[in-house]
Please model this.
Amino acid sequence: MAFGQQSGPPASKKQVSYLESLLKDAGFASFREARHPLDLTQRQAGGKFSKREASDLIDKLLSGEIDSVDLSDNAAAEAATGKLRAQRDELVAGFPADVMVEELERRGWICKPPPE
Model:
């Protein structure tokens, strides 16, 4: 068997469709979005499952082993990004304009003062 190939017969379209609807009910927009939270392979993230893989994942979703998407990680990431932006803005505001102009021109930018 080649690397990344499914073992066994492919899942039916009905199984994949049902699996997709269960994932949407759990809060995922697609197989790709569910890849890392559900530990899907790249092949599975593309919607390709063996009958057994699809059946096992359907069982997990129906039994409640896999909960709906927890957005707290996303909220934490957004808060961290906002904090980093605020720190960057504060740091840049502390540079004298002539130092920033000199550095930007050294990097190939063209700088001119704003119109009065």
